[in-house]
Amino acid sequence: MQTETIDNIHNTVNPSRMDHLHDRVIDYVRDDYPTLNAALNVEEALQVIRNQGIGERIIYFYIIDDDKKLLGIVPTRRLLTSMPNVYLRDIMNTDIISVPHTAEIMDICEKFVMHKLLAFPVLDDEGRMLGVVDVGMFTEETLGYVEHKHAEDLFQLIGFGITQLRGKSAFGTFRFRFPWLLATMTSGTICALLTGLYETTLANAIVLAFFITLVLALGESVSIQSMTVALQKLHVGNPSFKRFMGWLRQEGLATFLLGAACGTIIGLVAYFWRGEPVAALVIGVSIVLSVFAAGLIGLTIPTVLHAIHEDSKIAAGPITLAITDILTLVFYFNIAVLIFGTLN
Scanning 241, 245, 286, 336, which has the fewest C-beta atoms within 10 Å of its C-beta? Predict the structure, then answer.
């Protein structure tokens, strides 16, 4: 049954049936791969290979321990050219790029595109080998689709798509790119108005003005990182609400830790530089909250736009940055008012 599934994958994994790319990779692993015990030397390993065979499509030799946990990988060339008395543990490559058994087909496609390897071992939660997936199970069309998606993601970060630029005149290109610059100009104007509203607060704590650019930059950086994560997850179809909430929890925890680390460092810098503990507290707390919010925004905006319409997600980059900038300043100034009003 497994062999039939693998033989038919060329007909099922293609851009016309992209839902298939959400299938679990464990359903497509092959089990005719060679494994060797780490305690063997090269001569003993070759004898084992002669006795047991190597399967239909040998690419790498996988080195395991007595519990069948993967320890390393030996390329065929290295095994054949090493001296007979050399142990496999001394020539194996321990820098393993593996695949968890819970991965989806799309995840494997991306690994082949990114790492340019010919096969990946599939491991269970304890690190034991369950099988191998090799590049032969994917068509060039499928991998080309993934490469296109990686390129399209880059364009979506700045507000337009590859297909919108192809064959366009200078005016046509202007017409597609200018609307997203309007989003940036609008958010910049709102941020300027917000700064004006809190002019008194800045005048009473001038150190806050020195860190506005840094606070905004941190929020933007994290929102783009989270947006990139979202785009990678949205390559195929719309996620279920349960799956999206799982993404949100994971990204929320990650960005909270990022915010806490950045806020602590910059807060300490502000304190030792200016010697103003209240201002340093404002800066530190603001960074924690703004970075956390930026992560949630970066994950949510492209997901919502993608759910509305496939083509609409090219607006994700400008809208994400615009909302992040505005909320960052709202947090920054209101936290300053709250803390200064409470402690002074």
Answer: 241
Q: 258, 328, 322, 319: which is closest to 293 by C-alpha?
A: 328
* Nearest-angstrom CA–CA distance, 8 and 4: 6
Exposed/middle/buried for 293, CB within 10 Å: 0-12, 13-18, 19+?
buried
Residue 322 three-state SS: helix
pLDDT band for position 168 (50/70/90)? low
Q: Hey, what are 215's tokens?
A: 């606070």
pLDDT tens figures, 2-36 = 334 333 333 433 444 444 556 677 776 777 777 88
Rounded distance, CA 175 to CA 329, Å?
30
Strands 35-37 and 119-123: unpaired
Judged against a pLDDT cut of 50, whether residue 177 lies above it is answered with: yes
Location of structure tokens 């997203």 = 180
